[in-house]
Here is the input.
Amino acid sequence: MRLLSALVLFAAAATTVSAQPPAAARPAGARWEYAELYYRTVSGRPAGKDADGNEVPATPETLTIRWTTGAEEVSLKGWDEFADQLKTAPFRKDAAPAARRIQVLNVLGAAGWEVVESQTASGAASAGFGSAGDRGAFGKGGADRSPFGQGKGGFAPTTLTRTTTSTMLLKRRVQ
Here is the structure.
């Protein structure tokens, strides 16, 4: 009985192995090409005055894009520039940044690129315009200056800078 069970198992294993296509039947030379799309957005800051009353200019929102493949690495300053690099139709002038990003991803998808992995991180940092005379958490005025801008003198205006960083790993089949 044990001999019969062993023969049945052996026969089942032999048919399972032979059900797979031989290596010669698989496409020869099929391989993958990988790329990385990295982009980082830093929010702008409005104009204002520091604690000493000096004008502080506004800073615009910035976008950094890096497209890396095995053959090239390109750094760009916007989705419009990336679309030009890909030789695609120009964006509508009133298109939102998200719509521009989606259009670029559609062009990459049409070229055979697939997203394999995507990671996004975002954070915020606050920064006051400050004063050269400030010392410590409550500045030169000591405890009479609160972190909420009340009391004698208060704090300089604080702005919040938001940063979003995304990285996508893409692949496409090459022959």
Q: What stands out?
A: The radius of gyration is 29 Å. The helical segments are 2-19, 79-85, 97-110. The chain has one domain: 24-174.
